[in-house]
């Protein structure tokens, strides 16, 4: 049996039955009667100075066991730079910022005690938009920005610009000055998107034998461990993080937030302490996909060659840098992806504002950069008279083409995927007839994303009953990786069935370092580490079996729970017999494995301030949408949606299809009706299910998908991450289709009915960014 | 105030504020955490239970209105070693579950819907799901599974009916 045929299957999920019976204990199902409950005192102004803070009167309130403020955990954390306190210290930077915390016997007692805390804030005029933050005279949101510890070198920053990443390849000025080109410029703006995981951010902290133990709903146990150590000024090794099943993450839980507070209170009280965001808190302080402003210009010849391109992307990081610092990197790979371009220069800036901090959300800034790039591509086609499909076929990245950082792409992937989309459409047909008098539009768009590789570790213990235990820091967030692809991979390596593979849930005391579950990386990185652990197990197992069977290990194979002599099915002995022999003679059979990024190089001098200079594993998509727009109401109905996705190799095709359907639908929400706005006093206006409009069953259509296999990948058996990327090009496909339907340029998302009506009647102001200078270089820190 | 009702087949007596939402009693007093408190405003459906065989969001049900009622939660739908409800079994077989937090509510809503609407179309199923939100799956596999279950239910009824003739 080949490695692939032993691994690829539509394995169902082992956690489904308990989830369906309501027996699964997520973190927020683990309250016990002896636990304390913590409640946060949050800021009700977006900016200010703390003049007086005395939390001690709350200690006298009934049931209260501890109070804490920023002074109790003074360390700062962050990504790239450490700008973020656990609880506000002296300065308030956003509405909803935690200032103090109370732990009491009941949640009601803790909440009542908040009123006893003495707090005086001198309000400051908030800086709510990126335009305001970039004014030369703007107040600094972080007065001490120069003093922050820099964890990652290389990014330019100043004042309200938390981080800047640039990529530059070739002579862009010369390209734009060519006499044979025409120049197309477009501006785009997008709002935030709220993740709305059904389980909010929640943690239970306890203090055990002089160490913190945090159980929490996170995608990144090692980040929680390290941040807790940092803010509590403890060696991170004195923090243990374990992760029960997670009720949805979508990137929101890819950073630490409230978890360390529970450890702090547990140390103070000696009790277990639970802290759970209410739904209102969760939405009002959601680390949203950031709002952004994009200006892009291209120089294109009459033959349709893109000889020059430049862009400025402003990303609102909110009050603290967080993920946006890292994500400035991704502009080069997304806005700079998809197409073969001559000379390119791109700048991406994370800008501080007095608004709730933003974070990571499935495919992150790729979602809006793809929207901007694909709509810009359609505007090029409109302006120069090209057919949009032919233009894409001619210009998509292919074998040997260069990205903006000088990365060399391997193999032709997007071109054949576009052909596959045409084949798929021929099979499904189109649904123009269903528009029934409404305005009809169809568009095909492309997208470039990646697998966030990075470090993972795995240990495999082979047990005497023939089962294997896989120990990693992986987390089951719903995508199924821990339930499907990982046991499939280990079973395939060791000749077992997947139900013989026990998968341990994350415990930083048991498993090695891991970057976390996100970025489409789990199957690839933990999978590769698991294969490497299995190699050691296999080597030990075959050596022991060789002794028992008096056969050379290289003549033995693992199959169906047995060690057999190659080519002689039924020969040899069972794995349990070999394990028992090994345990008695040389000791238990275990293996450990590790994986990390290959760090594919960029061209010298092309990438500045980037966390990832070039993509180890690019991932491509082709998305096609058909829409009908009601000209009277502005309502957009999605009639059909088709996807061709580069999966490398689908280890569990049915599970991949489930991810595609779910990811596309989250993208439809983003494209059409999930809208976050900031009020005049700096609040997120949509902080409940009534005001934030999530997709419902009646809004969606069955997505028809074709899995494109065979593109190069470092992943196990050639797999790529399949769960993150399905959302990537949805905003793009819907915007392009709506634009074609209504015959107007679409430059903002979401396309709510009022916005579509305004576009139809030429009453929608087009994005105009006076704070983005006409000369590209003026928008950089040199 | 004292309220007495049946909870998963047993008597349960509650003495406290009659305005307490049922979901809080289930989760905090009885540790029946299969009922999920997600939006607490009646939009998401994750806290759906059966009250006198009707699917209702337990976050909007003050316990004072439950005197003498029969309340069944997801834990009571297929307790202990009892077989899964056919819809639960079908969701498992179809690989419909992802994070899983909406599913107890989905099962409670849709099991009552299937009982009352054996001839429902796909459009009817989608309309019935207006009060059950799922953030992970994009719904279609859930709708397909309910449709398949209904077809199976109809087929079984026909076979049973045929045998009786």
Describe this structure in words.
The complex is a heterodimer of chains A (782) and B (165). Chain A contains 19 helices and 31 strands. Chain A is α+β, with helices and mostly antiparallel strands. Chain A has three domains: 163 residues, Aldehyde oxidase/xanthine dehydrogenase, molybdopterin binding domain (Aldehyde Oxidoreductase, domain 4), CATH 3.30.365; 170 residues, Aldehyde oxidase/xanthine dehydrogenase, a/b hammerhead (Aldehyde Oxidoreductase, domain 3, Alpha-Beta Complex), CATH 3.90.1170; 320 residues, Aldehyde Oxidoreductase, domain 4. In chain A, the strands form seven sheets. In chain A, strands 9, 10, 11, 16, 17, 18, 27 and 31 form an eight-stranded mixed beta sheet that branches. In chain A, α14 runs parallel beside α15. The longest helix of chain A is centred in the last third of the chain and has 28 residues. The radius of gyration of chain A is 27 Å and the shape is globular. Chain B has 165 residues and is α+β, with helices and mostly antiparallel strands. The mean pLDDT of chain B is 95. The longest helix of chain B has 25 residues. Chain B has two domains: 76 residues, Ubiquitin-like (UB roll); 79 residues, DNA polymerase, domain 1 (Orthogonal Bundle), CATH 1.10.150. In chain B, 40% of the residues lie in helices and 14% in strands. The radius of gyration of chain B is 17 Å and the shape is globular. The interface between A and B is large, with 52 and 53 residues.
A few lines on this structure:
Chain A is an alpha+beta fold and 782 residues long.
Please give a handful of descriptors for the protein shown.
heterodimer; A: 782 residues; alpha+beta; Aldehyde Oxidoreductase, domain 4; Aldehyde Oxidoreductase, domain 3; eight-stranded mixed β-sheet; 19 helices; globular; B: 165 residues; Ubiquitin-like (UB roll); DNA polymerase, domain 1; five-stranded mixed β-sheet; 6 helices; 5 strands
């Amino acid at each position: 049996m080949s490695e692939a045929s032993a691994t690829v299957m539509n394995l169902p999920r082992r956690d489904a039955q308990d989830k369906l019976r309501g027996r699964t204990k997520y973190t927020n199902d683990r309250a016990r009667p002896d636990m304390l409950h913590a409640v946060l005192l949050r800021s009700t102004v977006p900016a200010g100075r703390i003049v007086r803070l005395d939390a001690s009167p709350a200690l006298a309130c009934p049931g209260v066991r501890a109070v804490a403020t920023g002074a109790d955990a003074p360390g700062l954390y962050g990504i790239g730079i450490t700008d973020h306190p656990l609880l506000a210290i002296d300065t308030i930077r956003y509405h909803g910022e935690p200032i103090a915390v109370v732990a009491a016997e009941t949640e009601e007692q803790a909440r009542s005690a908040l009123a006893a805390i003495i707090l005086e804030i001198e309000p400051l005029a908030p800086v709510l938009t990126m335009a305001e933050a970039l004014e030369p005279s703007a107040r600094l949101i972080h007065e001490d920005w120069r003093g922050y510890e820099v964890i990652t070198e290389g990014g330019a920053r100043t004042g309200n610009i938390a981080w800047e990443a640039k990529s530059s390849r070739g002579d862009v000025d010369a390209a734009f000055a060519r006499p044979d080109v025409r120049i197309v410029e477009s501006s785009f703006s997008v709002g935030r998107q709220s993740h709305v995981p059904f389980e909010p951010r929640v943690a239970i902290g306890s203090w055990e034998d002089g160490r913190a133990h945090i159980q929490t709903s996170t995608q990144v146990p090692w980040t929680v461990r390290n941040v807790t150590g940092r803010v509590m000024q403890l060696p991170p090794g004195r923090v243990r993080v374990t992760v029960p099943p997670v009720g949805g993450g979508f990137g929101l839980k890819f950073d630490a937030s409230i978890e360390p507070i529970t450890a702090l209170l547990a140390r103070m009280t000696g009790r277990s302490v639970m802290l759970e965001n209410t739904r209102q808190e969760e939405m009002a302080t959601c680390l949203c996909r950031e709002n952004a402003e994009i200006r892009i210009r291209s120089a294109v010849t009459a033959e349709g060659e893109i000889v020059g391109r430049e862009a400025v992307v402003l990303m609102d990081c909110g009050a603290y840098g967080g993920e946006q610092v890292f994500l400035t990197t991704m502009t080069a790979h997304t806005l700079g992806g998809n197409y073969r371009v001559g000379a390119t220069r791109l700048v991406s800036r994370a800008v501080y504002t007095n608004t709730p901090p933003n974070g990571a959300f499935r495919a992150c800034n790729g979602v809006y950069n793809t929207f901007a790039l694909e709509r810009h591509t359609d505007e090029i086609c409109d302006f120069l008279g090209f057919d949009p499909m032919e233009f894409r076929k001619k210009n998509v990245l292919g074998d040997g083409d260069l990205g903006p950082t000088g990365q060399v792409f391997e193999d032709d992937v997007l071109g054949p995927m576009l052909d596959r989309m045409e084949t798929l459409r021929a099979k499904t047909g189109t649904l123009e007839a269903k528009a029934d008098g409404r305005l009809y539009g169809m568009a095909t768009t492309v997208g470039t994303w990646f697998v966030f590789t990075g470090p993972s570790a795995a240990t495999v213990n082979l047990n005497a009953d023939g089962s294997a235990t896989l120990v990693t820091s992986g987390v089951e967030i719903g995508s199924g990786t821990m339930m499907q692809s990982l046991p499939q991979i280990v079973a395939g390596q060791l000749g077992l069935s997947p139900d013989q593979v026990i998968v341990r849930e994350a415990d930083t005391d048991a498993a090695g370092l891991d970057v976390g579950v996100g970025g489409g990386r789990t199957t690839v990185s933990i999978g590769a580490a698991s294969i490497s652990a299995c190699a050691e197990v296999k080597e030990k197992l075959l050596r022991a079996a060789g002794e028992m069977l008096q056969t050379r290990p290289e003549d033995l194979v693992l199959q169906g729970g047995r060690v057999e002599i190659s080519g002689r099915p039924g020969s040899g002995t069972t794995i349990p017999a070999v394990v028992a022999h090994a345990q008695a003679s040389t000791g238990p059979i275990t293996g450990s494995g590790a994986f990390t990024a290959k760090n594919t190089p960029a061209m010298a001098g092309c990438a500045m301030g980037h966390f990832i200079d070039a993509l180890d594993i690019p991932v491509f998509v082709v998305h096609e949408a058909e829409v009908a727009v009601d000209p009277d109401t502005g309502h957009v109905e999605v009639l059909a949606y088709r996807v061709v996705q580069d999966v490398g190799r689908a280890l569990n095709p049915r599970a991949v299809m489930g991810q595609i359907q779910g990811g596309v639908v989250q993208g439809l929400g983003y494209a059409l009706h999930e809208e976050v706005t900031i009020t005049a006093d700096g609040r997120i206006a949509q902080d409940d299910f009534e005001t934030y409009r999530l997709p419902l069953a009646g809004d969606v259509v069955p997505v028809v998908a074709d899995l494109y296999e065979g593109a190069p990948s470092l992943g196990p058996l050639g797999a790529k991450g399949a769960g993150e990327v399905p959302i990537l090009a949805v905003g793009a496909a819907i915007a392009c289709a709506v634009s074609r339907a209504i015959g107007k340029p679409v430059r903002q998302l979401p396309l709510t009915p009022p916005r579509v009506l305004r576009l139809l009647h030429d009453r929608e102001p087009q994005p105009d960014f006076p704070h983005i200078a006409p000369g590209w270089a003026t928008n950089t820190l040199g | 105030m004292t309220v007495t009702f049946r909870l998963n087949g047993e008597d349960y007596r509650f003495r406290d504020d009659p305005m307490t939402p049922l979901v809080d009693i289930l989760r905090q007093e009885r540790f029946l955490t299969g009922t999920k408190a997600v939006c607490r405003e009646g939009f998401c459906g994750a806290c759906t239970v059966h009250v006198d065989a009707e699917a209702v969001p337990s976050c909007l049900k003050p316990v004072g209105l439950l005197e003498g009622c029969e309340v069944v939660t997801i834990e009571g739908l297929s307790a202990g070693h009892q077989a899964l409800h056919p819809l639960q079994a079908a969701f498992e077989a179809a690989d419909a579950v992802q994070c899983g937090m909406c599913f107890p509510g989905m099962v409670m809503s849709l099991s009552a819907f299937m009982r009352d609407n054996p001839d429902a179309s796909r459009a009817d199923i989608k309309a019935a799901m207006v009060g059950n939100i799922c953030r992970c799956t994009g719904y279609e596999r859930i709708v397909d599974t309910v449709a398949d279950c209904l077809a199976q239910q109809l087929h079984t009824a026909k076979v049973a009916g045929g045998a009786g003739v």
